[in-house]
């Protein structure tokens, strides 16, 4: 009885530990824990367990806004955020070959508490990675990484 309550509590903590990418639209809901993703999809490098989408979002070639809700985590009042861009469709899954191009320097966030919260971070003008050379119509993928206090990271992406 006690053991099953503890397991349920641990499961709830894992399930609530997530980011939601609100703009540009993400590949889809990866707030899922099941037999294929027993630790939860969003911990899977590099794209949170999601395949490349076919419903791509237009995003300015001069850079633009990125918004996300970082607070679907429990037990972590602080985290480190990274935002990267991957170019093209030559990688596994028809996505980028890598996500190794930072768009902005990493930054830390402090939540209101260790509990989940619904606040959104909006960065109104995120530039392309340094020395990026793109033209209108190119495919690319934005990756938001949330590094938790214990060193594991959550991944959400937008194509
Ligand atoms: C793409 O489709 C998925 C599945 O219907 C949806 O969850 C997601 O929000 C869509 N993304 C965009 C950018 O429209
Ligand atoms: C787990 O969820 C993912 C995403 O919806 C899905 O692709 C996969 O088939 C699911 N696995 C099981 C065993 O239901
Ligand atoms: C990704 O695509 C593979 C191959 O088509 C498929 O087996 C897998 O279920 C897909 N994953 C998700 C999360 O939809
Ligand atoms: C971009 O990706 C779409 C599928 O999402 C594909 O149809 C199109 O050919 C790609 N464009 C380029 C320039 O690779
Ligand atoms: C990452 O991918 C780009 C193509 O988008 C390629 O030019 C570059 O060499 C790759 N970098 C690494 C470290 O693999
Ligand atoms: C950008 O390009 C300049 C000029 O080629 C080079 O000196 C610099 O190292 C590049 N920066 C990065 C981050 O690749």
UniProtKB/TrEMBL annotation:
It is found in: Cell membrane. It comes from the Eukaryota. Its main location: membrane. It holds the Pfam family BIM1-like_dom. Transmembrane segments: none annotated. Residues 16-156 form the Copper acquisition factor BIM1-like domain. InterPro entries: BIM1-like, BIM1-like_dom. The keyword Lipoprotein applies. CDD domains: LPMO_auxiliary-like. This is Copper acquisition factor BIM1-like domain-containing protein. It comes from Sporothrix bragantina.
């Amino acid at each position: 009885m006690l053991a099953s309550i503890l397991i349920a509590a641990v499961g709830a903590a894992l399930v609530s530990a997530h980011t939601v990418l609100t703009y540009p639209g993400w590949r889809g809901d990866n707030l899922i824990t099941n037999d294929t993703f027993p630790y939860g999809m969003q911990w899977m490098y590099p794209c949170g367990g999601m395949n490349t989408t076919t419903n791509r979002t237009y995003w300015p070639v001069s850079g633009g806004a990125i918004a996300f809700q970082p607070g679907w985590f429990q037990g972590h009042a602080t985290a480190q955020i990274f935002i990267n861009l991957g170019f093209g469709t030559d990688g596994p899954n028809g996505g980028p070959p890598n996500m190794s191009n930072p768009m902005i320097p990493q930054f830390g966030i402090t939540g209101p508490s260790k509990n989940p919260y619904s606040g959104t971070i909006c960065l109104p003008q995120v530039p392309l990675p340094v020395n990026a050379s793109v033209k209108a119509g190119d495919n690319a993928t934005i990756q938001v990484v949330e590094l938790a206090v214990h060193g594991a990271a959550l991944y959400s992406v937008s194509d």
